[in-house]
Structure formats: C-alpha cells, structure tokens
Amino acid sequence: MNRIQQCEEKFMELFGTTPVKNEGTDPEFMRILQRFIFGEVCYTGKLDNRTRELITITVLAVNQTLPQLKSHVKAGLHVGCTPVEIREVIYQCAPFIGFPKTLNAIAAMNEVYTAQNIPLPLENQETIQDKERYQAGLAVQEPLYGSEIREKYSYLPDEYAEAVPRFLTEFCFGDFYTRKGLNEKERELFIFVLLSALGGADLQVYSHAAGALKSGSTSEDLLAALLHAMPYMGFPRMLNALNSIRPLL
C-alpha cells in the first residue's frame, strides 16, 4: 500500500471514519498532516495501536492541546485502551507538568467519558495506604535510580535536603507508580516520552530512558515511541531526546 492507502486504513482503525479529502476550510494542510502521521509514522516501528494512542495522549496532555486530546481519548477507547489506562497516563503527568495542566487534561478526558456514557468516577486504583507512600515509592525508585537524587541535593540546607528527595519518592513513585492500571514498564516508557515532549529536561530524559530499559523496554521501543511522538511535539524535541539517549542505544 502507498501512504494514502495506509492513511485511510489507519484512520478507520483509530477513528472509525475516513480522512479528509477536500472537506473543511484547510483540506490541504489536513491532507499533509493525516498522510504523514497516519500513513507513515504510524507504520514505522513495531508499536501497537494501543501503545501509540497512549503515547499520543501523553504528549497532548503535556502540550495542553485539549481539543486534539479529546479526539485521541476517543481513538484510544476505539482501539482497546481501557478508561483506566487512559486515566493513568494522564494522572502520572502531574509530577512533571504540575497539577493545573493535569487537571485540564483530566477535564478533557472526562468530557469524552461522559459523552461515551462511561460512569465516573472510575474504579479506584490505589494499592497502598497513605502512611506507606515513602517505603512503597522507595521500593520502586531505588532499583531503577538508586539514591542519586538524595546524594545530588545533599548540598541544600537540611530541611530542603530532606524534603526534595522525599517529595520525589512519595509523590512521583509512591502516589503514582504504586497504582494499578499500568505496569512499571509502561509507566517508564510513557514518562520517557512525556519528558521528551516537555523539553528542557535532557538529564531526566536520559535517566528515564535508562529506567525504561531496566523495566523491560528495548532501545527499539524507545526509538519507536519517540518517532511516534514527533508529529505531536515537533522535530527539535525529538532530536534533543535522541541526542540525550545516544549512549544507551
């Protein structure tokens, strides 16, 4: 198949409809967009539709492109992502993009769920009690990252030298990695993409690429994920991420 035929096939798989031909106010631009993303990028690498849509949802949440986020939440449901899986990739954005942007993405997601008659709130995915956040988070963090953060910020005044690594352990790992809905391998891969899309986080991109490899992803998974994310975050951020992870490839 040529890329126009592949675009038509993939568009139907994801959205249950056909791509733009001459409809709308900017059909030329939409043809460029759709044929590139759905006729070429979606056929590069070995990622399945479910993983691709969760990557897309992650990047759109980071970028706060909420109309497109709603479209891809629908597409994710259409190709077999569960409501919980979609919610988890959005929830785990919070330590990296902050609560307000994450709340915006949650609101967009919930609009789709309401329109699809998916009952809210979704089932609880917590697995630990509040008092267990530190130890449970540390049990995930240390095998992947050791005590690097605690050592790196030991130069801070005592209160902050204690608070910074503790907040990271409790909040990022304790509050999110211990949840059900996604496994560790998936969480690390999506966070690697998230940080790549965020920009200005080269050290963290490298660290989470290494974490993704430790969690079971391959270097090909990392490359395929970055390439899939590229149309949504742009070439510069993809190239920066590639440069960051070059020693790991």
From TrEMBL:
One GO term in the molecular function aspect is: peroxiredoxin activity
Give the matching InterPro entries: 4CMD/NDH-1_regulator, AhpD-like, CMD-like
Q: Which domain of life is it from?
A: Bacteria
Q: Where is the Carboxymuconolactone decarboxylase-like domain?
A: 27-111, 163-243
One Pfam family named in its UniProt record: CMD
The UniProt entry, under SUPFAM superfamilies, shows:
AhpD-like
Spell out the protein name for this chain: 4-carboxymuconolactone decarboxylase
Give the organism the record lists.
Blautia pseudococcoides
What does the record give as the organism's lineage?
Answer: Bacteria, Bacillati, Bacillota, Clostridia, Lachnospirales
